[in-house]
Structure formats: C-alpha cells, structure tokens
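Sample intake sheet
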Amino acid sequence: MRYPELISYLSGDKDAGLLDYPRSNVVEEIKGTVEGANNFFVKVSEVYEVIVWMCDALNMSRVILPDPILSMHTILDSLMCSDPEVEASIRKQDFQRQRLSEFMENEMKIEEYHKTELEPVEITEGYDAGWLSPDGDFYGLNGSTENLLHLNIAERLLASKKIPVKEMRNPDRWLEENGWVKVHHDWILFSGSFYGKTLTEAQIEKLYRYGQVCHRGVLRLGTAQTQITAVRLRATEPLMLNKLLN
C-alpha cells in the first residue's frame, strides 16, 4: 500500500485506490478503523451540540468534553505525521489545495474585472502582469500564470474597442504586432521588433520607473531573460534594446 492512497482515504476519499487491494486484511482493518473513528466523531459532535443547546437554554455553563475525546484528533494527526513520507504527502496535498483555492479566487476577481469599465492603471502599483501601450498607458491585472492574465487583459481591451473588432480571434497577437509591451513581474517581453517597431520614449520611461520602484532597479528582457538595470535601459538606444528584447 502506498502512503498517498492512505492519506487520500483518511482525508475523505472513500476509494482512493484502496479498493485495488480487496483481499488485504490490512486494508480492511484500516478502512474499518477510519470509518469507525469518523462515525464516532460524528456522534460525539451531535451529542455535544444537544448538550450545548441544553446548557444555553438553562443558562448553565457549557460542559467541557473529557480530555481523551478532545485529544483524540491530535493523537491521530500525530500518528499520521510520525513518518516523513506521510508528512510530505500531506504537505503536498495541502499545497495543491491552496493553489487551487488561489486560482479560483483569482478567477472570481477576473470575472468582476470583465464587468468594470477599463481604465489605465499606474504601473508602479505592483500588478502581476500587464500590457504597456506605445502611449505609455498600462493595463494590469493580478493573479497567477494559470489565470491567463495577458489574454484576459487583451480580451478586455478588445471589448473596450481599444483593439479593432476584426482582431477578435487574436487580440493578444494584435497587441504584439502594434508595439505593446508584455510585462510579467520583472520580465519584459516585446515582439514589436519583428514588425518594425521599437520601444517608444513613453514606454521606456514607464519601464524605468517600474524597475526602480518595483524591482530594485533591475529587469529581465526578452526570452533570454537578460538582466539589465533600469538606468541602463533608459540610456540604451531603442534599436539596441530590440536586440536585448528578442
């Protein structure tokens, strides 16, 4: 039996792969113990709720459950975490649940974002991702990579008619072709050079302030993620910057 299957079962998954061992006495004993413990805690909780209601109704102090009952969950947790492999599996599942929770929370915020009127924001406010227009207007959004932030912003720009409607199939491609800068934390991407574009003075100035304020004066450019100081970026000719951004 593998620990991840056992932990999944203890976390509430009724099958969790344990049915792959139908003839194992050990498996049946584990399943019986877990089911019995879970039923016990359900009954204790039901009885305790009745006791609490009675105490409140009679204006009496609430009854405290005996220490053995209160400490049973702690004892079981201790037994599960006494093995490094079990503990690692628990941490991994907790991390995955946290990532999923954050993703769903970001998705709800993005859904609200699509309902609001689109306005440029200040690039130094520390957004996770954004698009910087040739005029220096920045449109940012918070979330994780899995939330497809740049695509969501591009769709919002399209809906706000800042991108021609005929480009509705590839709004992000239109932005790249027309000299917009893709910003992801300290990573700066610019595909405009493939279409004869260079960074504008407005874009360079915004990126300089962004690097200075949000990333300790250092940015990463292009697919090679070449590090460059914000000061050097502002002092470099646009054509030379294109080489670093490719």
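Comment: DSSP finds ten helices and six strands in the chain. Residues 36 and 144 are 41 Å apart (CA to CA).
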